[in-house]
Write a structure and sequence with these properties.
The chain has one domain. It has 94 residues and is mainly α.
Amino acid sequence: MSSEALIIVLYVVLYGRRYQINAKTELAVRYDNMSPLENHHYAVAAQILGNTENNIFCNVNQDKQRYIHDVSPTRRPVLLCLQGQNQIPQNELG
């Protein structure tokens, strides 16, 4: 990876969420400023995995699949993993 590409990746990781919220982008509005990029990534991943030929969980039993894809507020393992990069509280985004 070139140094320019690395700088772009670091910028997006560090400021992408802040930009989405401050610019009131479509994603920020859609997800009510709650981790717009992470929620979008989850939605796209779920859409891709919804196609049988792409479903890496096809050999996992149905109960475990429901747990993996659960998006209820108290239990959403995949979304919580994606949101692990959110270390900045919403009110500190400025």
